[in-house]
Amino acid sequence: MSEYIPSANIARTRAGQAHYVSDIDETGLGAVDAVADDSAPSSMWGEAWKTLRKRPLFWIATVIIFFAIVISLFPQLFTSQDPQFCELANSLKPARDGHPFGFNRQGCDIYSRVIYGARSSVAVGIFTTILVTVIGATLGALAGFFGGWLDALLSRITDMFFAIPLLLAAIVVMQMFKESRNIWMVIIVLGAFGWTQIARITRGAVMSVKNEEYVTAARALGASKARILLSHILPNAMAPIIVYATVALGTFIVAEASLSFMGIGLPPSVVSWGVDISQAQQSLRTQPMVLFYPALALALTVLSFIMMGDAVREALDPKARKK
To answer: What is the CA radius of gyration of the chain?
Structure first.
């Protein structure tokens, strides 16, 4: 087939709609009609949403996360039992009417403790993620945007904290404050040592965005450095930050459960999945179901955040969308 050369005869319609194009071949014997679309391309987030809504794993993760958040906010909607009410006469008794999961070693209703335990575990994960995102994104953005001596200083500080394992640092600090252990103490400790990775991610994202043409145009128009950073650079560098924060939320829930399992996280008076898993060790051989239910709730919640993070990463990655 001969090569087609576009003609100048183009009938345009209203702005944003398709227009009609007539192409005539070299011989002038025929024409090929085509429809071209001059509408504006979708944004990165629009393309990401088109990809996400087609992924079943995204919807499964969304349902589980939504369910966990609703349970955390309104546990009384799912059980009328008091998780702190225990009777030794019910110790390790099997399930019965009104107590579908049975009782633990102290005679507490396992079902109510699993429901109310979501509040502490999910709260630690969410607030710790917010804290590390604020600290890490702020330091990483400043280092990547200004560069020079500030970048060198903040990078060395980040390297110092990065060399300290998160769980080991949390164990040492929590041991120093045994008498004042609570949810906020766990959040602060995990946040103080868990921001390094997100700082590195933010620094790299800001450095790759700050040389784009629209940033250069903003500088040429006289925009201040603060406006350029907050209005032009950070909004376009948020994709990797959001992906990491989604996965990190599940990691911090596991970290809280690990600390409570070792007896140095939340105190036994607080209802959480980690505390219940720790207490179930004593009954593991005789009644393994005492451990199974809180462990299952923990695993499903963490898995849902990991699946959500993977789905968001693939949706925001242009290479993954092409595949």
So the answer is: 27
Q: Are 266 and 121 in contact (CB under 8 A)?
A: no
pLDDT digits (tens, 9 = 90+) for 284-323: 888 888 999 999 999 999 999 999 988 888 887 655 555 5
β-strand partners of 10: 21
CA 51/CA 45 separation, integer angstroms: 10
CA atoms within 13 A on the CB side of 255: 29
96 close to 81: Cβ distance less than 8 angstroms: no
Residue 57, both tokens: 């794993």
pLDDT at 296: 94
Q: Which helix (H) or strand (E) holds 156?
A: helix 148-162
Amino acid 43 reads: S
Tell me the pLDDT tens digit for each residue of 188-218: 999 999 999 999 999 999 998 988 888 889 8
Q: What is the pLDDT of residues 70-112, one digit of tens each?
A: 999 999 999 988 898 888 888 888 888 888 998 998 899 999 9
Cα(157)–Cα(154) distance, integer angstroms: 5
For residue 9, report the phi and psi dihedrals to the nearest 5 degrees: -85, 90
The owner of tokens 């979501």 is 118
Q: Which residues contact 116 (CB under 8 A, 6 or more apart)?
A: 75, 79, 83, 271
In angstroms, the Cα distances linking 222 to 30, 130, 174, 213, 226 are 54, 33, 49, 14, 12
Which of 64, 58, 41 lies closest to 315, judged by CA?
58
Helix axes 148-162, 110-146, angle to 10 degrees: 150
Helix pair angle (183-193, 166-176), 10° resolution = 140
Cα separation of 100 and 78, whole Å? Answer: 12
